[in-house]
Amino acid sequence: MEKSNIVDFSSRDEISDALTDLLRTGAQQLIATAVEAELEGYMAQFAALRTMEGHAVVVRNGHHPERPIQTGIGPVNVRIPKVRSKDGAPVTFHSALVPPYVRKTMTLEAALPWLYLKGISTSEMGTALKALLGPAAKGFSANTVSRLKRVWASEYEGWRDEPLDDDQWVYVWADGIYSGLRGEEDKLCALVIVGVNARGQKKFLAIEDGVREATQSWREVLLKLKGRGMNPPKLAIGDGAMGFWAALEEVFPTSRQQRCWQHKTMNVLNCLPKLSQPKAKSALHNIWQAETKEDADKAFDLFVKTYEPKYPKAALCLHKDRDELMAFFDFPAQHWQSIRTSNPIESAFATIRHRTKRSKGCLNRDGMLHMMFKLGKCAEENWRKLRGFDYLAKIITGVKFKDGIETTKTGQIAA
Fold it and tell me: What range defines the domain where residue 140 resides?
C-alpha cells in the first residue's frame, strides 16, 4: 500500500512541532497568496480587452467582506477580491480554492501539510491545493501554480540577500542537514548556519544546498555571509566531521571553535562494542559536565587511559579534537548549555527529517530549500532568547572568562 504524505490532524491537540506552528500562523497568508495568483490568472484572459483610451476593461474592484473558514487548525480569515467590467459586461471572479459561501472545509487541514511537503516547487502543488475542495474542483491552472512557486522562491531569495551588518553576531552554529531527498548524484544536503546576536536573539543566517564534507561548499556559504556584512563570530559550534572548519579558518580566522559534544559522543561510542557503550558514555559526560576545565582535563585523561589499550580508535576520535571540545570553558557558564552542542539546529530540523522520509522523490532541490526555509523561519519565531544574554555584550568587548566565570585583568575570578 502506497504511503500517504498527508498528515492526519485527527489528534492534532497532541501535535506540537514546527510544521504545526507554521500551519497555524501561515495559513491565512498562504490562502491569500493563492487567491491572488488565481485572480491574476483570471484577469489574464481579459488582458487583450482595452477601452478606447487603451485602459483595461476588466479591473479589480476591492474585496468581498472578510469571512472566516473553520478548519482543522482553527479559523482562517479570507478576503476574496472582486472585479468589474468598465463596459458593463457581467464578470465575476470565483476562487476555486475558496468558493462562495464556503464556511468550513475539513480537507484544508490535510491539504496544507501536503502542500508544504510536496508542492512548493513541483507540479503537484495544484493537486495539493485542489484537495481543499476535492477532485471536482476546477479553475486552478498550471499558470496559477507557477505564479505561486515564484512567490515562494522570491521570499527565499530575498531572505538570502538580507544585510547582516545591523547586528553583532557572537555565536554561530553550523550543521549539514540531509533531507533524505536525492539529487542526480548525491543526497541533497542543506548547509545551515544559525547565529545569536548581541541581544540574545537566535536567527537563521544561511540555508543553502551543498555537500556536507566539502570545504568549498562551506567556503561559499561563509563568504556570502561575510559579503552581507556578518562580523567574525566569537565562537562557532558544530560537528567535527564537516569541511566547515577549514572554511572558517580561511574566512573568519579569529573565530574560536567548539566541537559539538553530542556528535562527538556518538562518534566515540560508535568505536566501542555495545556492552561498553553505557559506561563509556557516562565517562564522556564527566568531561563536558565538569565544573572546571581542570576537572574536565582529568576526566579526559582518565577516559583515554581507560579505553586506549583496547579501543585505540575511540581514544583517538576523542583526543584529536581535545582543544576544540574544551573551548566552552572560556565563555560564560550561563551559555554552556547552548554552546556545547549544535542542538539549536538539530531541534529545529528534527521535524523536517521526519517529514521528508515519506516524501522522497516528491521535492526537488529548490522545493527542499524552500520547505526548510519556511519551517525554519517559523521555528525561529518561537525561539527564546539565549539564557544569560546580558553576558553577550561582555564577550563582544573582550571580557575574559575562566571556567565560565568573569575574570579581572589580572586573571583573578571577579567577585
Answer: 12-159
